[in-house]
Amino acid sequence: MKTKGAILWGVGEEWSVEEIELGDPREGEVQVQLAASGLCHSDEHLVTGGTPVAFYPVIGGHEGSGVVTKVGPGVTGLQEGDHVVTAFIPACGQCPPCSKGMQNLCDLGANLLAGTAISDGSYRVQAQGKDVIPMCLLGTFSPYITVHQASVVKIEPDIPLEIAALVGCGVTTGWGSATRVADVRPGENVVVMGAGGVGMNAVQGAAAAGAKRVMVIEPVARKREWAMDLGATHVFESAEEATEKVNELTWGRMADKTIITVGDIQGEDVQTALSLTGKGGRAVVTGMGNAANTDVKLSLFELTLLQKDLQGAIFGGLAPRAAIPELLGLYQEGQLKLDELATTKYSLEDINQGYQDMRDGKNIRGMVVYTDADR
Ligand SMILES: [Zn+2]
Ligand SMILES: [Zn+2]
């Protein structure tokens, strides 16, 4: 079918909204009419070249929600009309990592940046006659996607579809970074570095887990205010300020857990996090950096003698098939804020404005909302 999508033709270019050709579902695939797509910082890494892809063009977007409109052969557990949220890591439930409870590391994610369809290794999107890589095998910057069944998670039909997109990436990643990977316990001191679409949800997760203090480092004033609304107890403008205040507040013990959720992580952020973390504490690396960046300087002395734990995290260490419905259930019960996160809604045509606003720190999460005019 012909539809449209936001395509990136090379590093440093703008998103180009143009006609695309989208394939019908093949073995194990479904087609989904999307209601919304989040504007995640990870797609910005395609613009800067920080995330290496096999080639350009790429169709961006990996945080979507919608309704299944077509079902290919061999699909089980999904039918036309089902409401779904996309999972930026496919989760098959059967491969060795999935079987061991690590769905966020599913082997089907092997070609995530190569863009070849799980079903048959083809490309399901073409633009100007060329094959297009769909970001994270999704490409939600289009009102329609054709994706493998492992890349979507069915949700309850009474959940507002637009807002549900948020749990496809940012919310779950932040929440799980606090509740699962940092394993925040009641009474702990937690530092969150960077209050964007991911960090705000690390704040929500840490608060829900019973942290005594949720201390946020964020240079943008408006985001510091939002963080306070979402459960932060203290906010600091810089790491220097935080280091001094956390030291004071904890009587020198520092944080039990520190979570790095900055949008473009640098080597020095890791040492900052480690220094903010006290003896026997854990620093979690959630934010993404440039794939080519291997420059990290650490105090090995501190790491060893103070028995600190440095841990990476993808999708907040959570299983998409379990976490997505669970978080939406918390939202329905009023225990997780989602509406407050979608600070500006854009049409697909305004996507470059949406990313400019992200760079300018104007949003927690900008969202593209699709209307009939897009289809
Ligand atoms: Zn994302
Ligand atoms: Zn798997």
Q: What does this protein structure show overall?
A:
This is S-(Hydroxymethyl)glutathione dehydrogenase/alcohol dehydrogenase. Keywords: Metal-binding, NAD, Oxidoreductase, Zinc. Residues 10-369 form the Enoyl reductase (ER) domain. It comes from Geodermatophilus tzadiensis. One of its GO terms (biological process) is formaldehyde catabolic process. The N and C termini lie close together (11 Å). The strands form three sheets. Strands 3, 5, 6, 9, 10, 17 and 18 form a seven-stranded mixed β-sheet that branches. Strands 13-12-11-14-15-16 form a six-stranded parallel β-sheet, with helices on both faces. It folds into two domains: 2-168 and 337-369, Quinone Oxidoreductase, Chain A, domain 1; 175-313, Rossmann fold. The model has no long low-confidence stretch (mean pLDDT 96). Helix 11 links the parallel strand 17 (342-346) and strand 18. It contains eleven helices and 18 strands. The relative contact order is 0.16. Helix 4 (170-181) packs across helix 5. It has helices spanning 41-48, 96-99, 161-164, 170-181, 199-208, 221-229, 239-249, 267-276, 300-305, 320-332, 351-359, and strands at 2-8, 16-22, 29-38, 58-59, 64-71, 83-86, 125-127, 130-134, 144-148, 152-155, 189-193, 213-217, 234-236, 255-260, 277-285, 309-312, 342-346, 365-369. The protein is an alpha/beta fold and 375 residues long. It is globular and about 60 Å long. The structure holds zinc ion (2 copies). One zinc ion binds next to loops.
